[in-house]
Write a structure and sequence with these properties.
The protein has 15 helices and 14 strands. The protein is an alpha/beta fold. The chain has two domains: about 140 residues, Aspartate Aminotransferase, domain 1, CATH 3.90.1150; about 240 residues, Aspartate Aminotransferase, domain 2 (3-Layer(aba) Sandwich), CATH 3.40.640.10. It is globular, with a radius of gyration of 22 Å.
């Protein structure tokens, strides 16, 4: 008699993470068959030839003989002091080392923060589209995601009135992802001020995912939330993975700000949960001070003739030349979120499109609906490949959409012939 199958947590059925999901598994199968793929599903700089800056690597090497023991559950004291000073420089007067939490990437800290905050049935206001880890972490910590729309017609910026209308007696937090993944939207100060005011009126925690804070294009300028929030409780997330191209080091941080009495219990909960996992990866933490105080290596990549800028230009120009695509130009981050329009959009299904693109053109993208939107005519690409490779990607996308537009036109042509 075969053993009974192991049961898994029921709420896992509500979790989606297509960035590394079914399509990515199919991509691995095709690679095992000898196919060469262009994989645009993950914002992973090291996979596209980027390297972490040399001065960060040296800092780890120089500190490696001090990395054998566990460190404090909130992180290395020197790294936390450097982060506190950095955030005070951004205008957060109460940024102190004891309010800094270092984790195994921002992903771990998102999970810890929601575990510290939520009781079963509590609600978190999330952007739609969102980075799906936020939805997954809310669900797996027994919360309920409630989505506020960031519509393409509004440049993927949210409507504060809609956000406030969604607040209920169970709402605990508002999540902001700025600059945004997947859309590249960058939030202006006036918008942030209105969202902060909502949090203040309703006693909500602001959870601010700012991992792309220095990846900006053209005239875009980053506005951190915490200086505007002042006494309103706010947790600001960032790390080494994107700006400093060190994803595999797994070094993220969260800085807690706001009135001391208002955040005291939450601070203690975060500290307890950090202690239960002992500490974050220690070697990578030796790079934090070097990252904050060393040379700026991201701005040249985002300026004209820089690799990220030119990759973004390749995507923008390719979409402009397409018969089937539209795009809200990304102002920041490492992604573009094009939409399919016209005849190709008739009956369009983003997952079917992504699968056909993978099977027939050897390109892996992420369906837009994976980012918790109700529409199915978008997809996400990363801006990390070389510009010429991205232009080739969009030539292949155009071929697939040409076929889809032809299929959509066929019934119309048949009806016209019968008339």
């Amino acid at each position: 008699m075969p053993p009974a199958s192991l049961k898994t947590r029921e709420r896992l059925s509500e979790v989606r993470y297509e960035i590394r999901g079914e399509l990515a598994r199919r991509a691995r199968e095709l690679e095992a068959q000898g196919r060469t793929l262009i994989k645009l599903n993950i914002g992973n700089p090291g996979a596209f030839g980027f390297r972490a800056p040399a001065h960060l690597q040296r800092a780890i090497v120089d500190g490696i003989d001090q990395t054998d023991p566990y460190t404090h559950q909130q992180g290395l004291p020197a790294a936390r002091e450097a982060l506190a000073a950095h955030y005070r420089g951004r205008g957060i007067p109460d940024a102190h080392a004891e309010r800094v939490f270092i984790g195994n990437g921002v992903s771990e800290l998102i999970d810890l923060s929601l575990r510290a905050l939520l009781n079963p049935g509590d609600e978190v206001l999330l952007p739609s589209p969102d980075y799906p880890l936020w939805s997954a972490a809310t669900i797996l910590n027994d919360g309920r995601p409630v989505y506020y729309r960031c519509l393409p017609a509004n440049g993927f910026l949210p409507d504060p009135d809609e956000i406030e209308a969604l607040v209920s007696s169970r709402t605990r937090a508002i999540v902001l992802i700025n600059p945004n993944n997947p859309t590249g939207a960058n939030y202006p100060r006036e918008l942030i001020e209105r969202i902060v005011a909502i949090a203040a009126r309703h006693g909500l925690l602001l959870l601010c995912d700012e991992i792309y804070d220095s990846i900006l294009y053209d005239t875009a300028r980053f506005q951190p939330v915490a200086p505007i929030a002042g006494d309103v409780p706010c947790l600001s997330f960032s790390g080494l993975s994107k700006v400093h191209r060190a994803c595999g080091w797994r070094v993220g941080w969260a800085v807690l700000s706001g009135d001391a009495l208002a955040v005291r219990e939450f601070h203690h909960a975060m500290d307890l949960l950090g202690a239960l996992r002992l500490c974050a990866n220690v070697p990578g933490q030796f790079a934090v001070e070097a990252a904050l105080q060393g040379p700026n290596t991201i701005d040249p990549l985002c300026a004209p003739e820089g690799r990220l800028y030119e990759a973004r230009r390749a995507v923008v120009e390719s979409v402009a030349a397409s018969r089937h695509l539209d795009l809200v130009e990304p102002a920041g981050a490492l992604y573009a979120f094009p939409s399919v329009t016209g005849a190709a959009a008739e009956g369009f299904d983003d997952h079917r499109f992504a699968l056909e693109l993978l099977e027939t053109e050897n390109v892996l993208v992420v369906p837009g609906s994976s980012f918790n939107v109700p529409y199915r005519n978008h997809f996400r690409v990363t801006l990390l490949p070389q510009p010429d490779e991205l232009r080739e990607v969009f030539r292949r996308i155009e071929r697939v959409l040409d076929r889809m537009a032809g299929d959509a036109a066929t019934p119309v042509q048949a009806r016209a012939a019968l008339a």
